[in-house]
Amino acid sequence: MRSFSEPAAEAFRSEVREWLIKATSDVRATGSGIQADLDAELQLRRDWDRKLANAGYAALTWPVEYGGRGFDAIEEVIFAEESAAAHAPIPINQFGRRTPASAIMEYGTPQQRARFLPPILSGDEIWCEGFSEPDAGSDLAAVATTAVRETDGYRIIGTKVWTSLAHIADRCYLLARTSDDAPRHHNVSVFLLNMKQPEVRVIPIKQITGASEFSRVTFDGVWAGDDELLGVENEGWPLASLVGLRTMNQLSLATRYYVTIRDNFDQLRECCNAAPECTRRVDRIGVKVELLRWHVMRTTEMKMIGREWQSPSSVLHLYWAELWQEITQLGLEQMCVDHEKYWRRWYFESRAATIFAGTAQIQRNVIAERILGLPR
Ligand SMILES: Cc1cc2nc3c(=O)[nH]c(=O)nc-3n(C[C@H](O)[C@H](O)[C@H](O)COP(=O)(O)OP(=O)(O)OC[C@H]3O[C@@H](n4cnc5c(N)ncnc54)[C@H](O)[C@@H]3O)c2cc1C
Questions:
Q1: Residue 96 burial (CB count, 10 A)
Q2: Mind listing the pLDDT tens digit for each residue in 46-68?
Q3: Cβ neighbours, 10 Å, residue 7
Q4: Which residues does 217 contact at the CB level (< 8 Å), separation at least 6?
Q5: pLDDT of 314
Q6: Which of 71, 151, 246, 283 has the fewest CB atoms within 10 Å distance of its CB?
Q7: Which residues of the chain have pLDDT under 70?
Q8: What's the pLDDT score for residue 32?
Q9: What does residue 172 show for φ and ψ, rounded to 5 degrees?
Q10: Pocket lined around ligand 1, Cβ cut-off 6 Å
Q11: Maximum alpha-carbon separation in the chain
């Protein structure tokens, strides 16, 4: 039975801590939210991605046969904790290494695995996720982007929106409708789409943070070959639905966001500079940050020993998202002179946490209906 206190886990923690001290000595994101800084930050995150890949830390939980380390969630959480403590950057290819990579490993052909997994791992190909559309967000079954069958592939027409990293992405994990007649949930397919085609138009959306990290993307007759269809035509729903991969990812999402939350929290503590009222509030928030860490660890251990872990993992998103907003709200209220831009950026950025990967209302529905068994 695995646990965070076992010798192997402790040894991994020491190894990672030592590596991070050296690897982060010359990197630290500015966090100001200014576009010029964000461009630099993007480059820094790309470089960090490569550093992780070269050192064997980019895909801890991937099987060894695909270039991963074959570890389980324990090592992933330890790495996130130590990255948080070292204020390490967030790797750029976070989307590619989560849903697309897991789905390609599970549903892809041997050729697709050989073609797509190595550049995801190395950071040479950046991925985005094309689910949301102007009229399909929480309810993904309403996607209207259409892929029409031709002799040896598909012609795709439609619009996606809020597509993070689309402006730099090489590939898109795209959900599109492939049948007008088949029943709901048996009429969509997933494509591993090449974004570098003239018929793909990426229109950056200016966010309240001042940055443009996501875009509206139009597909005007874009081509996807048969070898870019993942799994079986019309059976793409399990590869994309909220109850599938995206929900299972709540644990790793919380693990990933703990890094940013911890970074913001440490900055907040510094910002308070021993002012009594601020310190009192920060101490209370500190307990919650620690509880987040323990909750992630406990859920991970439950997963490891085969106990029901989906329920505790479902409350995680709501917990970390609201905690993050509480931290950045206080940071903004304090408005420390040195950190003004920092807090403006993170305050706005944290607003998105109760929207993406399932809105807070949807998370509450999940908790009410699936965990507490309340009537609809
Ligand atoms: C920073 C950021 C990055 C994103 N990146 C991506 C990306 O890379 N790829 C991608 O595909 N999408 C991305 N999204 C989009 C995100 O997944 C959607 O915004 C989200 O799924 C909600 O969809 P929507 O905006 O259409 O809102 P809607 O689904 O229209 O919801 C509007 C409101 O109604 C509520 N609501 C809807 N249905 C219910 C219900 N059944 N019960 C109770 N309340 C309900 C919602 O909670 C919300 O408050 C991103 C969003 C953000 C903010």
A1: 28
A2: 999 999 999 999 999 999 999 99
A3: 7
A4: 130, 159, 160, 161, 163, 166, 172, 200, 201, 202, 203
A5: 80
A6: 151
A7: 28-36, 241-248, 337
A8: 45
A9: -130, 130
A10: 128-132, 137-138, 162-164, 214, 352, 355-356, 359, 361-362, 365
A11: 71
Would you state the pLDDT for residue 36? 56
The one-letter amino acid at 53 = A
Ligand 1 site-directed mutation target among 138, 242, 346, 354, most atoms within 8 Å of CB? 138
DSSP letter at 27 equals: -
Q: How far apart are CA 252 and CA 80, in angstroms?
A: 9
pLDDT digits (tens, 9 = 90+) for 170-198: 999 999 999 999 998 899 999 999 999 99
Residue 135 · residue 105 · CB < 8 Å: no
pLDDT of residue 243: 41
Distances (CA, A) of 135 to 144, 159, 315: 8, 10, 27
Q: How many helices (H) and strands (E) does the chain have?
A: 13, 8
Q: What is the pLDDT of residue 304?
A: 84
Characterize 30-69 residue by residue with b for buried, 16 or more Cβ atoms within 10 angstroms of its Cβ, and e for exposed. ebbbbeebbeebbebbbbbbbbbbeeebbbbbbeeebbbb
Token pair 């550049």 in the structure block, residue: 119
SS3 358: coil
Query: How many A from CA of 350 to the centre of ligand 1?
Result: 15
Tokens encoding 297: 């660890």
pLDDT value at residue 280: 92
Give the predicted TM-score (pTM) of the model.
Answer: 0.91
Q: Which of 216, 359, 362 to mutate to test the pocket of ligand 1 (most atoms within 8 A of CB)?
A: 359
